[in-house]
Amino acid sequence: MSLFEVKNVTVSFGGVKALNDVSFSVNKGEIFTIIGPNGAGKSTLFNVISRIYEPSKGQIYFNEENISKTKPHNISRLGIARTFQNLELFENATVLQNLLLGRHIFKKTNLLSEIFFTPKSRQQEYEYRLKVEEVIDFLDLQHYRDTLINGLPYGVRKNVELARALCTDPQLLLLDEPSSGLTNEETIDLGFWMKDIQSILGITIIMIEHDMSFVNKVSDRILALNYGKILATGLPDEIKNNADVKQAYMGE
Amino acid sequence: MRFIFKTKYSQDINIARHAGDKFWYSLLILVMAMMPLFLDDFYLGEISYICILSIAGIGLMILSGYTGLASLGHAAFLGIGAYTHAFLLTNGVPFLVSIPIVIAVSFLVGAVIGIPILRLTGMYLAIATLALGFIAEHVFIKWEHVTGGNRGMPVPQPEFMGISFYNSIFFYYVCLIFLIVSMFAAINILRSPTGRAFVAIRDSEIAAQSLGVNLGLYKALSFAVSGAFTGLAGALLAHYIGYLAPDIFNIFLSLTLLLLIVVGGMGSLHGTVFGAIFVGFLPQLIAICRDYLPSSIGSQPGLEPMLFGLILVFFILYEPLGIYGRWVKIKLFFELFPTYKSQTFKKQKVFTKSDRV
Question: Residue A72 and residue B209: Cβ atoms within 8 Å?
């Protein structure tokens, strides 16, 4: 069953077609990777999914519901979480506060009960924290709970961003270049975590990635983009041997 | 140095982080409560004024320091609060009923103005709020049958059990209690999901949105909450001044509020009080200095605004975290004493953020 489907999506900025008639579908429980050279439209695709850009044509379906008209802040309520290519963490807040924000969509209190910090508000904070602690345990962030993001090394920041996305209890996780800027060791850890997210948490992952050995190791299927058009979709081995992809991406 | 061993989630939620906090803040409240024993009417009046400034500072701090939205027209909310309060009191509404109405009115005005104005960002937002300040001033001038126009408007000083607001000790306690209550309200908002959403908007709008924060709603909410605090301060200010005139709520007052939060320390509630003390005593300090300066400088009429501007620039350049930031550094210096490193607060080079998201 396909959890997520993109149908004939076209995005143009003036005369440039960043995405041209792109269609694909992602099955439940898959790790689906999007590859392509710079400017291929990968990040544009993510931004269309999170409704930051408006597609000029086409629809996007999630759980068989058309989300092409959903408000951007409601996307996470449907169960789609994302990370960003250039980290978008709340820099002057602690790791814990960042992760607690991941629970924002479950907010039940109103301003008045927050001003008086009623028992209901306090209870909600406990519930948030319980879930956040699960994620902290899952991604080994115990050490950094009270550290400001400002003072963290890059690798940990990436990890915090992943953790924050997981805090929203997503069904679909969009990862924009999760391994960029990580050390070898961190990339290996990330691979394990992604497999765990897939198998233990049952979350479907779509990621944009450049590190081909990493891609081949973790992906179930790969989509190759170039100049906004789909070059090929298929299993890692098929993509590796696809002539078009080789020419556009691997430079042969 | 204190090491806190955390065993309960409530330790991260409670206002007092440890027993030391409880002790020092209780002591502070106790000392403030005993102030009338030591000080005469003049200084009590000054401290009352500082309390009022602090409340207004909390308002602007929530908007600028926590939500990251500039406002150069916050005197408008002080004015709205002051005139609404004076109008209600003149029409026989009791003080304790008038205050909640003032808060509600400023909240609503903030929300209504906030919805269109907060579509703008950065410089344009600053200009729009500046315009808001001027428009409010003109409304106070032109709406004569409510505000009395340029003639001004006397503020009735109601009585409680025979004690009137003219009594400086009574007024001092009123201001102090409102400051403490406002402080708690602000802390509670900031440790709740709404406060975290404000901080999220300040640090990264796009991430906040992707986590389900409705940007328009929360920005307007921040403006409204900010307006409510400032409106409350305005109501108290009305009693302090005693006679309202439109030109009190001018651009200079807005800039004073801005100076208050920058000097106090952006993004900290401690900063509002530090800033208020600084801004409250600065005119006195300048007045004293005038006597010692050569008369060609000392008698210049524009000395005060010029010094305000100069101080603002110096703080932005040399201590962007304000007095509170300096206090944190000094505290850490003594906690770590021989091993303090001057690099501790050096900001790590931030990785380039591009417009691509």
Answer: yes
